[in-house]
Structures are given as structure tokens and as C-alpha cells.
Design brief:
56% of the residues lie in helices and 5% in strands. By secondary structure, the chain is mainly alpha-helical.
Length: 153
């Protein structure tokens, strides 16, 4: 099948298929005499695997490891489980950070009158001095979250 058909069958965009090929996540497919890519059912199966792993938030490096483990029929499932548990911890930390950001924004919105006056705790919270908010915490996963408390003057 051609790249468009492989895209449709796998749910991975043509652009991402080309990207995965360029970075070596998938092997370059066979090509016709005129240079068109030709994908097999096995290639589509691999693309579906990658798509599902990506949907679960795994990085390209983790997907490389998972693909290698998937192909290694003598692998220990303990290794796969360890990777999954590590990803669960990453996702839970991101969820906590997103919850903290949501709570902060909710707090600011609750204190905004939302009327015709220009006073706005939301804008004040964004533009005000750092002392008005609790310092941001940065997780080891690059997500920031805050427990902001806006003090009204």
C-alpha cells in the first residue's frame, strides 16, 4: 500500500510517518521503481503500535525501547511493566500540575467580577509582582504548576 493508504489504515498522518522514518523510529519502506513508498501490513501494525504509545504520552526514545521489546520475543515482561509504571508516574505528575494550574486560574476567575469595570484579579495576577503569588514549582517533567493566592490591595 502507498503512504496515504498506510496512513488511513494506521491512523498516523502522512507527515508523521515521514517523520518517524526520518528519525529512524520505523525502517524505511520498500520503494517502487519510481520512488514511491510501499508499506506492508507489518509496517501498518508497527505504525498502530507507535500511535497507541504516542497517545499514552510516551516519548520517541521510550517508543524506540518499547518497539525493541515488542520485537524481542524473549523479553522479560518486567522490563515492559517498569516502563509502563514510570510513564504512569509521569502522567500523574502532569495531572497534578494541570490540576494546580486549573485551581489557580479558577481562584483568579472566582475573584473577578466580570463586569464593565477595569479591575480584574486575573490580569492583576498575571501582571503583578511575584510576591502576590506563591512561587512556581517546576516538576522534573517540565510541567509547571502553582498554588497561587492573589492578595487584593
Amino acid at each position: 500500500m502507498n503512504i496515504g493508504e498506510a496512513s488511513k489504515a494506521s491512523g498516523v498522518s502522512v507527515k508523521m510517518i515521514r517523520y518517524y522514518e526520518a528519525i529512524g523510529l520505523i525502517a524505511p519502506p520498500l520503494r517502487t521503481g519510481s520512488g514511491y513508498r510501499v508499506y506492508s501490513d507489518n509496517d501498518v501494525h508497527t505504525l498502530r503500535f507507535i500511535s497507541r504509545a504516542r497517545d499514552l504520552g510516551f516519548s520517541v526514545e521510550q517508543m524506540e525501547t518499547l518497539l525493541a521489546l515488542w520485537r524481542d520475543r524473549s523479553r522479560a515482561s518486567a522490563h515492559v511493566k517498569a516502563i509502563a509504571l514510570e510513564q504512569i508516574a509521569v502522567l500523574e505528575e502532569k495531572a497534578r500540575a494541570l490540576k494546580a494550574m486549573s485551581d489557580t486560574l479558577r481562584h483568579l476567575a472566582e475573584h473577578c467580577h466580570g463586569d464593565d469595570r477595569p479591575d480584574c484579579p486575573i490580569i492583576d495576577g498575571f501582571a503583578g509582582p511575584a510576591e502576590l503569588v506563591t512561587p512556581k514549582r517546576r516538576s522534573r517533567f517540565g510541567v509547571t504548576g502553582t498554588d497561587r493566592k492573589v492578595r487584593r490591595p
